[in-house]
Structure formats: C-alpha cells, structure tokens
Specification:
Order of helices and strands: HEHHHEEEHHHEHHEHHEEHEHEHEHEEHE
Oligomer: single chain
Radius of gyration: 27 Å
CATH class of the largest domain: Alpha Beta
CATH superfamily of the largest domain: SGNH hydrolase
CATH architecture of the largest domain: 3-Layer(aba) Sandwich
Strand content: 5-15%
Helix content: 25-40%
Largest sheet: 5 strands, parallel
Length: 481
C-alpha cells in the first residue's frame, strides 16, 4: 500500500513537472502607442476657448469635458492629459430639455457644479478658457480680478494661480510642451454675431469684431511665443468656422418663416443697428434663405409677434424706449419692431463674414510662416462641407451616424446651438488627427464617433421620434464660447 502511494506521488510529480515545462509562458504586453511620426505627444497642451475646453449645452461639466477634442486625441496617442474638471450640473447649470409637448422647453439646470481638482500642482494640459478672446492668451491681469471684471469664473477656475504662469501662454510654456493644439479667435467674431451686432470685441468701440490689425499683431505674437526655434515642438492650429453654418443662426428664421407663411404674413419689421424705430424688413424669403438671420435666443419671443400689450419689454423688466409704441403689433410695425439684438441683417452678416475671412487668412499666414512645425486644421472648410452635404445629400454619414448642422436632431451641435455634442467633438478630434498624420508622418487612429454619447441632456422626459423640434419657449443664460 505504501509502495502504491509512493508510485502515485511519483507519477503526480512527473505530470506536474511535464505540465510546468509545457505551459505557455507567453507574457501579455501592454498596448503600444501609435506611431506619431515627427509629432511628440509626451507633454501635450491645448490652448483655446470653450471649444477647446469641451463646453457643451452652455456649460462646462465633467461628462462633457471627458470628450473634449484634446482629451480624445490624448487617449488616441496614450498620453497624460489633465483637465480642470467640474462636477454636475456644470458651470453654469447645463441646458436641458424640460418638456417636449405641447412645446419644446429648454432651460438651464438651476443648480451649479464646482471644480474638483483645483489643487492640481501644475498648469492643466487643457487650457481652454470659455469666453476667451485672442487677447486673453497674452493678458497678464490677475486671474481672480479678471474673473470678476469679466463676469466669467473660468479665468480663475482654469488658470487658478499666477504662480503657475501669469498668462495662458505662460502656463502652457511652463509645461514645456512637445505638442500644442491652438484654436482661438472664434469669440473675436462670435461675440459680435451672437449679440445681433450690438456689441463686440474691437478695442476702439466695443461694438464690432476685433479689428484685423489688432488680430494680426496678437496672433503673430502668440505664434512667435509658442514656436520652438529648435523645431522639436509641433503645433496644430485650427481656423474659425463661418457662423452661417451653426444652428444658433439657422434654426429660428426658417421655422418662423414657415409659420408666417401659414398665416399669410409676408414679413417682420426689425430694428437696424443703433435704431429704435424699425426701418428693416425681413421677408419670409429672407428668413428662409438666410439673408436675414435670427439668433436662437430669439426663439422664446417669436410667440409674442403681433402682441399689443408690451409683453416683450415686460418679460425683460424694462421700460420701453422712447419712440416705442407697445400698442402697435410687436414685430410688425415700425413703432414696435423686432429687436436688433436678435437679428443679423445683411450688413451685419457681411461684417461677420469679412472678419472671419480676414482672421482665417491671418491664421493661415502664421501657419505658413512656421510651416516646418505648424499644421493648419481647416475646421471652417469641414463645416461648410457638412452644410453642403445637408443640402445635397441629407447629411454626412460618419461611423454609421448621419450628421447635419440642424439643431438637436443633426447630432453635431448641442442645445446652445454653438458648441458641439460629444459626437461633434469626436469629429473635430478626427480633423486634427488627419492634419497631424498628413503633416508629421503619423499614423494615429480615428476615434470611432459612434462609441461616444450624443450628449443631449433631458430632464424627466424622453425624446419622441415624431417630434419636429419646433421651438416656442427657450430660456437660457448668455452664450459664451
């Protein structure tokens, strides 16, 4: 019996040794970063405004920030990328769809989020500051004072401490970046456009887009500051989209025109810039064809057209200006016209277009000046192509999803009509990746856009497939990029 036990033990030992000797000893290896060619993403920094920050639905919050285009790129190249994260429901409270029937109601969440990593010891990799204009990149004003003066908390949230660098550019350079994305200048024209041409960013008057000489000098200053003379640091700079390709300007006019035509009303009367009496006429054809643009923030007031009790001014809590007769039909009479602040007329559209074209030429010229280390990301052309595809083919299919520039249902833009959805930021990230791959001999993979969330916040409601998204009641805070 003992001998049998010894034989069994011996056989088990032999089998164990055989098993160990034959086992597969192949070790799993960690995924390897993609080949980035001449582009080194070891220390990756993004500079810009809310489009860089990952702003969505008129707010900055973590669930949107994790899909900023910079974060998406950093994930694709497998590098560290720290952002100034903000808890739900964001700063300010994000826009949400509150109701779909009988009308679509969109309003901000009444709460507010707060920063969750203010104690991070270095500048953030994402230095996108919502509301920033080109000048803000070099401005050394104390961040806390600037946040108060500009009524914009993001200067203190993102930049935090002068000791980290006394400007956006200084903080970026203090990280000793090996790669930079730069997307700035949008607000230098968008501020004018979203205000209906009533205010702007030019230093002289504050009523026009930033003047071209100032923009040229500033962009060249930024270019010289962030360019590495050794050629080691690479930079991808994006240009500025045409405002006529975003739903903030293309949603209300055509829908209003359809409603007016159904009632047999041919036109509205509006204030031209700086006037009280309405001397402008926008026909339904003008509104449908985009010759006159109405801002998305005007949607909540279209239901007051024809009112003779002064509800528009009462809703704002202001006294009607001298020369206004609220007993006349609102928006249909020169003495009670549709407000200038909600209207971009043909002259203002021309000012906006000229500024955008001029700014994009400056950006292109600086990219060409540093052509060995810079590459242009032509976001403007992409959004023009998307708009054209919408007209000619019903949209552009990307990763199995149909994209248009239409408000909400187009998948590209969020509830504020200016900022992309997470889908949209994925598309933008891929535009950057394409430019980087081509210029610097990289082979960075696209993000599959269909793996990202659509990011349209709902509040106790569910989207209906039948809903046509006609907007009759929208309230929200001012749009900032």
């Amino acid at each position: 019996m003992k001998r049998t036990n010894r034989l069994v033990a011996l056989l088990l030992s032999i089998l164990l040794i055989t098993f160990i000797g034959c086992e597969d000893r192949t070790e799993l290896t960690a995924p390897q970063p993609p080949k980035t060619g001449e582009a080194d993403f070891t220390r990756f920094v993004s500079i810009g405004n809310s489009l860089t920050a990952g702003y969505q639905n008129s707010s900055l919050y973590e669930k949107s920030q994790i899909y900023s285009f910079g974060k998406i790129i950093s994930d694709q190249v497998m590098t560290d990328y720290v952002q100034p994260l903000i808890s739900e429901p964001g700063i300010p409270g994000k826009l949400e769809i509150k109701a779909l029937a009988p009308d679509v109601v969109i309003a901000p969440n009444p709460g507010t989020g707060s920063p969750t990593n203010l104690d991070y010891a270095k500048p953030y990799n994402n230095l996108g500051v919502p509301g920033a204009i080109l000048y803000d990149l070099i401005d050394t004003t104390d961040f806390q004072q600037k946040a108060v003066a500009r009524k914009n908390p993001f200067f203190s949230v993102v930049l935090r401490d002068q000791q980290l660098g006394n400007s956006i550019i200084k903080q970026a350079l203090n990280l000793q970046p090996t790669f930079i994305t730069l997307w700035i200048g949008n607000n230098d024209v968008l501020g004018y456009a979203t205000s209906g041409g009533t205010k702007g960013t030019d230093p002289a008057t504050g009523k026009l887009p930033t003047d071209v000489p100032t923009f040229t000098a500033l962009y060249n200053m930024v270019g010289a500051a962030i360019t590495d003379p050794t050629g080691a640091r690479k930079i991808a700079a994006a240009n500025i989209p045409d405002v006529k390709n975003i739903p903030f300007f293309t949603t209300v006019g055509p829908k209003l025109a359809a409603g007016l035509e159904a009632k047999g009303v041919p036109a509205i009367v509006y204030q031209k810039n700086g006037e009280i009496i309405g001397t402008g006429v926008a026909t339904t054809g003008d509104l449908k064809e985009g010759k006159i643009l109405l801002t998305l923030t005007s949607s909540g007031y279209t239901g007051l057209l024809g009112d003779t009790s002064g509800k528009y001014y009462a809703s704002l809590g202001i006294t009607p200006p001298a020369g206004i007769d609220i007993t006349k039909p609102f928006g249909f009479d020169p003495q009670n016209p549709w407000p200038d602040v909600f209207t971009l007329d043909d002259t203002e559209i021309g000012v906006t277009k000229d500024a955008t074209n001029a700014f994009n030429k400056v950006i292109s010229d600086v990219v060409n000046l540093y052509s060995n280390t810079w590459v242009l990301v032509d976001v403007n052309t992409f959004f023009s192509e998307l708009k054209n595809a919408e007209t000619t083919a019903g949209g552009m299919v990307i990763d199995g999803i149909n994209f248009t520039t239409a408000y909400i249902k187009g998948n590209t833009f969020g509830l504020d009509g200016v900022h992309p959805t997470s889908y949209g930021y994925g598309i933008i990230a891929n535009q950057f990746i394409d430019a980087i791959n081509k210029k610097f001999g990289a082979s960075i993979s696209h993000i599959n856009v269909s793996t990202l969330p659509p990011s349209i916040p709902l509040s106790k409601t569910t989207l209906s497939k039948d809903n046509n998204y006609i907007l009759k009641n929208i309230t929200w805070k001012d749009i900032i990029m």
